[in-house]
UniProtKB/TrEMBL annotation:
Family assignment from sequence similarity: Belongs to the peptidase S9A family.
EC annotation from Swiss-Prot or TrEMBL: 3.4.21.26
Residue ranges of domain Peptidase S9A N-terminal in the record: 11-425
Organism domain of life: Bacteria
GO cellular component, one term: cytosol
Pfam families: Peptidase_S9 (PF00326), Peptidase_S9_N (PF02897)
Record-level Gene Ontology MF annotations: oligopeptidase activity; serine-type endopeptidase activity
Biological process, per Gene Ontology: proteolysis
Higher taxonomy: Bacteria, Bacillati, Actinomycetota, Actinomycetes, Pseudonocardiales
Catalytic reactions of this protein: Hydrolysis of Pro-|-Xaa >> Ala-|-Xaa in oligopeptides
Domain Peptidase S9 prolyl oligopeptidase catalytic: 492-701
Listed name of the protein: prolyl oligopeptidase
Keyword annotations from UniProtKB, A to Z: Hydrolase, Protease, Serine protease
Organism, as annotated: Saccharopolyspora hirsuta
Amino acid sequence: MTDAQAQLRYPTADRDDIVEDLHGHQVADPYRWLEDPADPRTEAWSATQDQLARTWLDALPGREAVAERMRSLLAAGSVSAPAWRNGRAFFTRREPDQEFPVLHVRERDGSERVLLDVAAMDPSGLTTLDSWSPSLEGDRLAYQISVGGDEESLLHVLDVATGELVEGPIDRCRYSTISWLPGGEEYFYVRRLAPELVPDGEEQFHRRVWRHRVGTDPNTADLLVHGDGLDPTYYYGTRVSRDGRWLVVEGSPGTARRDSVWIADLTAGGEVPELRQVVDTSDGYRVGAWVERDGRLYVMTTLDAPRWRLCVADPQRPEPEHWTELIAEQPDSVLEAVRWFDTGDGDPQLVVLRTRHAVSEVTLHDPATGRRTGEVPLPGTGQVTALTSVDEDTDQDRDRLWIGWTDFATPPCVHAYSHRTGQVALEQRAPGAVELPAVHTQQVTYRSLDGTPVRMFLLSPAAEPDRPRPAFMTGYGGFSLSREPGYTPSALAWVAAGGVWALPSLRGGGEEGEEWHEAGMREQKQHTFDDFHAAAQHLIDEGWTTSDQLAISGGSNGGLLVGAALTQRPDLYRAVVCSAPLLDMVRYEQFLLGRTWNDEYGTAEDPEELGWLLSYSPYHNVAEQTDYPSVLFTVFESDTRVDPNHARKMCAALQHATSSDPAKRPILLRRETEVGHAARSVSRTVGLATDQLAFLAEATGLTLD
């Protein structure tokens, strides 16, 4: 420990006398002033926290070793499965020396060239490629970029043959799908209303679906298709059938897991289609719908099937009473995706992706009957990231199915399945050579507090517990999102140093279907935290680690998870990394996208739901004179999803309340500017991981050198 670390002292933070009566609850909020980043007190406090964090983090042992390990593991690069359009293959690849993936196109003759390289466009490393979509003819590409982590996507269109910009930027396109019409002259997309057209504080909402003709002014020529008069928090997605006849619009309020669906016949006349509602959010279930190449409406839904099933219908009679089940729900796996596979021999198939306890499986089915006709053998226990095949109207490789693949120790790569031979072979590996550590991967089952069985992935140097080792546990448990096996350099770096890494599949996630999600949301959110505590206790009871060697980490909703974990069971965990977290659950709805999450958590405006939130809100459950673990908050000043004020307020509260010696169990806040909630460069990834891993290693006794 350096002298500077030994003398660590927290800055004085004013504790304002703010106590509000909310539905009969006396709710204190002494650090509300930290919500305002422009308040001089906040600026001074933040500057001091920056200095404290860097003083501590820069002096940690093993920093260079873990940074070099991370650089080495990330040098594997990545490659994505191709998207096929009229014989052209579009895909991303990141070479070992590149900061971001680069979009390439491969022509029919096999020649390949760079189509879009954001690092070349902006050498500062602040621009990220958010999404891209080629036209059906493969001659135009719509792409979206954002700058400085704000995720405020700017939409452009380029000519694939020449690489020249055709139009753009079109602003306010965050989270927009792009649905091309045949011919490549028009597309449907989602764009927010101009700020002057919406109430103050609602600039991030009020999305609309528009029809756009390439080359025209989107502010004057776009045709409004959908969204007026609906909930301003609605997110929309659009899909156009391959023949250009049918438009399907899906929508949901915020992140609520219940959907509305509309459909329109684009041949019925008029440029603005007449949308017919099929499902309403008040029906209370989830739906993903599209019109497939056989002319039928395909519907993936949780109606009467919390693990999802597939139905079909006539697009002209799209209502649920006309749905016919094609592929039934399975009791122990979750239906994730369905793809059309031409096969080239006149025997088209449906490719069905399921996850069984978060592990991918792929099967083939007869489109007419839904009968299972075969299985696609996968490389191992991992995750299918994409399933693609060539266009129906081309002859090139129609027999093949491309599979994006990864697992905990395999960088993103591509395999190809031949329908003729029934075999899967590696098509493209990640471009960089990398030396992977010896790692044992397994999935174990433990019991939560109420007896519910929960599964957990374990990565370790030895197949069985040989001695208690420093352990790193992470999780998410929210919004029906699943944490599946995927290449994780930080986990491999931890295991390479001799530690154990764990990922439990917590309730609130989607690993076991919609019932699993609902069991960890709203009034049942405590189940998520109970599952996490039980996972920690399992690691201890089985001899993998001890509480004094146990570190936890989580980001976003996972930041809420570890924030609740450290306030509920400070005795169980030695160190915590809490990244871009939600922590003040009374006021979370008042900032950024917070109001779109109240279906998941509940709202403080409702007396009963406020009680749920207060029961676990980390900021409101900080207790005076408690021996809290070491805590590192990591936040990103350009985050447009979760406001950094959550971490500021929680950091101040913990620094005030903890009885731990700051020189032994510090509470620190690490800030980054010009980066946000999502994509970041390789260099920034290495920098963040170095600070996080070195912090946790020092606390748990893991030697990184």
